[in-house]
Design goal:
By secondary structure, this protein is α/β, with parallel strands linked by helices. It has a single domain (13-233), classed as Rossmann fold (3-Layer(aba) Sandwich), CATH 3.40.50. It contains eight helices and nine strands. It has helices at 13-18, 25-28, 40-54, 90-99, 113-119, 140-153, 182-185, 198-207; strands at 32-33, 36-37, 61-65, 82-87, 106-110, 128-132, 159-166, 211-215, 227-233. The strands form two sheets. It has a seven-stranded mixed β-sheet with strand order 5-4-3-6-7-9-8, sandwiched between helices. The model has no long low-confidence stretch (mean pLDDT 96).
C-alpha cells in the first residue's frame, strides 16, 4: 500500500540519534529543553521517581523496553541485581552497549518490544518492568498487547512503571500556540507520540488486567505541567 500522506512530519529516534554527537547522550534521546540538555538535578528527579515507584529490592531483575541509549538506565543498576534494556533502535543500542553495558548482569538488546516479549524464554526471572518516555510511541492496540503479555507471561513482575506520559488533558500547556489535530495527537509516529488522558491510559491498563495509580513530578521538573507517571500493580 502507498504511504499515507500526512499534514505533519513523522519522527525517527534512530535517525535523530545518528545526527547527534557520539557522546551527546541526552540530546540523542531528546531529554532537552529547547535543545539544551536538562540538568543533573532533573535527571536525578527522574531516577528518584522510578526507584520510588518500583520500590526496588536488591534481588530484583529489571526489564526495560524502549530503553534508548542507556544513559538514564545506568543510574538504576545500583538498585537491582540484574537488568535488560530492549530498544528497536540499532544506533541507540550500540551507544548503550559501548558506554553503559556491564556484563553479565546489566545488558542491552536491540529488538522490538513486542517481539522480545513474545520470544523471551525465561520471563519468570524478571520482577520489575519499566518504560520511561517511550510508551507513547506504541499504538493503543500495541500498548494493550504489551501490558497483557507482561501480566500473563511475566508472572513474577508485580510492579510496572510507565513514565513521562503526555497528558492530553494538559496539552495546551505544551502547545501554547494551539493544539494539533486529533489525528496527529493520536499518532505514535510523531515526535511526541500519542497524547493520552489518564482515563485513556487507565482503560488500556485495565483491559490488560492491571490496576493503576498516577503521579506527577514536582513543579520544578521541566515537564511536570503536561506529563504524568503511572504505576501498575496486579
Amino acid at each position: 500500500m502507498p504511504k499515507e500522506n500526512k499534514p505533519y512530519p513523522e519522527f525517527s529516534y534512530d535517525e535523530h540519534a545518528r545526527s547527534c554527537a557520539p557522546d551527546a547522550f541526552l540530546a540523542q534521546t531528546r531529554r532537552t529543553v529547547q535543545g539544551v540538555p536538562v540538568s543533573d538535578e532533573q535527571i536525578q528527579m527522574i531516577v528518584d521517581a522510578i526507584v520510588n515507584g518500583l520500590d526496588f529490592k536488591s534481588s530484583d531483575v529489571l526489564l526495560e523496553i524502549a530503553c534508548g541509549n542507556g544513559a538514564l538506565s545506568r543510574f538504576l543498576f545500583r538498585s537491582c541485581k540484574g537488568y535488560l534494556g530492549v530498544d528497536i533502535s540499532e544506533h541507540l543500542i550500540s551507544v548503550a552497549k559501548k558506554n553503559f553495558e556491564m556484563l553479565p548482569h546489566f545488558r542491552f538488546l536491540m529488538q522490538g518490544a513486542k517481539v522480545f516479549l513474545q520470544q523471551e524464554e525465561q520471563p519468570e526471572k524478571y520482577t520489575k518492568f519499566l518504560c520511561y518516555a517511550g510508551f507513547q510511541y506504541f499504538s493503543d492496540d500495541d500498548a494493550v498487547d504489551i501490558l497483557s503479555m507482561i501480566y500473563r507471561k511475566f508472572c513474577n513482575v508485580q510492579t510496572v512503571f510507565i513514565g513521562s506520559l503526555p497528558d492530553k488533558d494538559n496539552a495546551v500547556d505544551f502547545y501554547t500556540s494551539g493544539c494539533p489535530t486529533t489525528q496527529e495527537m493520536s499518532d505514535p509516529m510523531t515526535a511526541i507520540g500519542v497524547w493520552r488522558a489518564k482515563d485513556d491510559f487507565k482503560r488500556l491498563a485495565r483491559l490488560a488486567g492491571w490496576e493503576v495509580q498516577f503521579s506527577t513530578m514536582p513543579p520544578e521538573f521541566y515537564a511536570s505541567n503536561y506529563r504524568y507517571d503511572a504505576v501498575l500493580s496486579r
